[in-house]
Queue: 2 jobs
Job 1
Amino acid sequence: MSLPSVLQRRPRARPSGDGLGAWWLLAAVLPLTFLAVFFLWPVGAMFLRGVTADGALDLTAFGEVLGRERTWRILGHTLGMAAAGAALSLAVGLPAAFVLYRRTFPGRDALRAVVTVPFVLPTVVVGVAFRALLAPGGPLGFLGLDQTTTAVVLAMVFFNVSVVVRQVGGLWSVLDPRQAEAAASLGASPWRVFRTVTLPQLGPAIASAGSLVFLFCCSAFGIVQTLGRPGVGTLETEIWVQTSVYLDLRVAAVFSVLQLLVVLAAIGLSSAASARTVRALRIRDAYAVPLGRRDWAPALVTALAATLILLPLGSLLVRSFHSSEGWGLRNYRLLAESSGAGFAGGTTVLQALEHSVKIAGDATVFTLLAGIPLALLLTRPFHSAAARRAQRWLDGAVMLPLGVSAVTVGFGFVVSLQLEFRELAQSGALVPLAQAVVALPLVVRTLVPVLGAVDHRLREAAGTLGAGPWRVLLTVDGPVLLRAVGLAAGFAFAVSLGEFGATSFLASPDYQTLPIVVVKLLGRPGAENYGMALAGAVVLALVTATVMVVCERLRPRGAAGTGGAW
């Protein structure tokens, strides 16, 4: 009997977890152990460092830190920049979402791709690009915005506007235009139609995108650090300063707790808004308005995209070819010859790139070892109500690293694993483990939609034809998983390659990664160091872009990509 005939004739059975209940329980041990040892323990140790002293409860550190005016200035500066970044991202992203998802015109797909580019770039590259744009001698250097709070906010908008475009545009594209047309036929002006009909319908997606951007802005350590920590800095930069400069781990722990509370509040708002967005997206038909002869919106959005996105990246690329000797490849030649002017020894940029690739490869392996069992577990149609509840709890646990700043993760590694296992820390083994923690939620969110799309009736039919549970897993889920793993591995590699927050705490002096070296060069005086930083950022961007292009080619047909992770 053929497989299609079995699907047609056999009634759908109640799911049972594929007959591998004990094995699924065993499969959960490895990823849960990984999360417990390399996430919960470090974050918990960080929290305990702030609330205990000599093994006893001691909140004096909180009292001292919260009693300082500087603490509240740092908190206000962090929240203010995040709020400004979210508001401006919405202001820029909403018109762009309208044009890119409610209009059809030549070049729309290419323009969507351009708008998405900043979000996949390492934050260090974004920061260096804005330094190249706003520094004296740059195209916009005359504005005097270099190393200012305004520069940081603009970089945040650059990095996050695609989040708004994707989330709001996805809902806008499926709204039925007949309600707006009916309001217009009753005499409502276009602005009143938008305000009274369209905007309420888009409300869940706008709230979700805004809170998510706010979350990303609160944890934009790479951007803020690269742009010079303007003003009093942020909670993340203060954690780094207290740890690396003053060696005051208790005060750093208090700031980490404050950072964690801010991030958890943003996650709560984002989750609530996302749930409303998912309900609003349960619409089957999409509506697009053809481009009219006098519709100037696409041209305006194209010009805006060129100004906001292409200008910083173009400035970075062009200025990377300029050195003290004039125009040429000197900055790129120095990448393999020097670790920076005025400093003896150290790691060259190309050596740091080699280190980054090796570390990212190790981090990818760790991420997949934990992520694949988790994705399989989260997509099993278990019959037991207790098993389904465990799935929901497991899904929430997997997403926890996404809601904790990489700086907090890195600091947690310092106060737990690095202090307890000094030889392991000195070997550099903690860096890929920390990067794997950061990349794990993205990998799981890449695999789950693909595996979840597999019709469980195929597994039941294969079992009816005599296949055992393991053979069903290999022959039904295996091919889909194999293709999706390539996509997930690419994303994990790209995230690890550009990771800066956790790595800045853990990288050893003789085994630096490329983002760390680029930031150090940018902070050193001298035109040669600055030129090498620009060239190194270009190399990092090109490598990351290449990895992302490969990822897109590995995308399974019909896969949702990374949209769910946003």
Job 2
Amino acid sequence: MTTKLNCINLKLISIHRHRLKLLKFCNCRRSFNSSVDKSRVNIEFSNRSSLILSTGKYARFADGCAVGQIGDTSVMVTAVSKKKLSPSNFLPLVVDYRHKAAAAGRIPTNFLRRELGPSESEILTSRLIDRSLRPFFPPGFSNETQIMCNVLAADGVHYPDIISINAASAALFLSDIPWNGPIGAVRVAMLDDDLVVNPTRRELTNSSLNLIVVAAFPNLVVMLEGAANNMLQHYFQKAIKFGVKECQAIIKSILQLKEFAKPKRQFTPSNIQDKNVFNFVKLLSESKLKDIFLNKTHDKISRDEAVKGVKDEIMEKIKTEIVATTDVENCCSYSFDNVCKQIFRSLILEENVRCDGREFNQLRNISCEIDLYRPLHGSALFQRGQTQVLCTVALDSIDSALKLDPMSVLTSGLKEKNFFLHYEFPPYATNDIGKGGSAMRREIGHGALAERALRSIIPSNFPFTIRLTSEVLESNGSSSMATVCGGSLALMDAGVPISASAAGVAIGLITDYQEETKTINNYKLLTDILGIEDYIGDMDFKLAGTKKGITAIQVDIKIPGLPLKIIMEAVDAAYQAKSQIIEIMDNVIPKHREEKKENWPISERLEIEVHKRGKLIGPGGINLKKIMIKTGVQITPTEDTVYTVFAPNRDALDEAKELIETLLSESNEPVLEFGGIYKAKIVEIREIGVMVTLYETMVPALLHNSQLDHRKVSHPEALGFKVGDEINVKYFGRDPVSGVVRLSRKVLLGPTSGLVHKLQ
């Protein structure tokens, strides 16, 4: 008995020990879960899905990682930077945003069934993130840095681009990479005159505004990009302020993750910067550079050549007077560039002088031409200073609409675009040599901006697909806004009934920015900037619209944020300049061309009876292909009986109509009278009825069992019918949906009853 009790006690002690271990394990799990909760912040918006930012779970080998989520859309962003300083004097930052098909539960539609190169929407989102993050890297930091944004899940309701910017901000903030963030980003829409933050995809389709606002603390604008449906200026400014205010909650929430952030690594700026060398170069070049920048007769090429001559002269002197190594030469070259920048900016800030002699709010000389070449549907040449853009319009059938890739369809809700703009920037536009071919990221971004600026003035019910091409022939600043101006002129020349003329302009900024105190002591806004003013300045503010309102905006800021006061002044300056440009354009063509050109395409609706569709289309669509080959006319079914006919010109349309009439009249089909009685010949017996013809060339029609007799017929042979028999039938026209001939025999018989069975 004692032995049994001892065994029981030992078992109880063992169970108790296991319970203690389990309790200890649960306490550890509880403390672990609480730490995970701290690594997760929830940013709530009024009547909106909240933004969740978390860290510590994925990609822990990366320098920084964060996951952002709104609704069921999640994006993981990683940040990695090399420890070794690169020899370049700029920041080699690469942003790769990928929206894989698996995130939406899809399989890629290409032959390999895997993701290939980035799509246009992925490239545009990558540029969006890059422009938001770049200003906050410290001066002199030139380590290779890569930001990778991977969409983990997409619900088709919430946009992943906004999530990516916020998650990238959190990832860099948590990493040891030197970065002076965080920043916050929101999308602002206007629904029924109310501003809404982070709208869903369906809400955005009904919005008159699609504006992305990126801001820093306290209420500093970092980046703007968006489109509007010809929105009034004061509404637009209100939307910017609203977006900046909403961003502050995101910034404060990211700061709550500070306990999980790594200490920022120390870095030494590249030895390419040397104060003594800078002073030496400044002493040799200052007066010469001032003379060049004050010489109003210089154009882009001559000014660049004069500056290059001074630089070559100084480099040659250094080689002869100093034992110059590669490092010394690089240091001198970098110092010379900084001296140029300092002198150019000081002339504007201190002496109120622009290098071409214009006032700060003055436009360059503008000239416009339209209808340049007869074969083109529309064309225009827009010249502003030394920026020259040739725009052409091609009108084609609705079948030529641009089909979007599946992931772009999921995020944008658009399956195809009947208006699209292609922007080309060949190397000769800047007196350079380079490779032609596929569009680079910069060309895709500039083309997308100009397309957004013009999209809202294009009629939604236009019967053609519009392709607008813009080729930059000369470039000295703001070629994308010149594309808006030239594109508007070309559309009007092509007879596209746009709602109003549109124009665009770029506003620049020169500031006395103090890096230590993060303050701006002085600033000057520059209207219609040159290429050098863009390169050396602190902001590229592009705004487009009509006389009435604003249609697109894109703001790139090179310093860590600007106060709202400066941004509002820039909107005012751009609005005034835009209106002046439209007045000049209206002198050339005030509204769209109403008289049609001889080469203008034609689109008509063609109604074909249902039963004749087969004769028009032919086996496998052979007849439509023949018409296309012979005349160039495309025939596209849009409804059951309605076809859209697209012809390149009137002669082609007339020829196609003759071919269509011939195809439809080849059958020599007699006109049947509704309610008429005809003799029909049985050509086939089926279980459900008999196939009959009323004339020799007629396609056999079904006379159903229910129409053979008043009695219920289970099989036609029950009535003794055979192939070749002739019976009387009454004609009731064709079915309006299917086009099938409606015939009846029983209406010609007297009333009777009973069941007729198949004869044995």
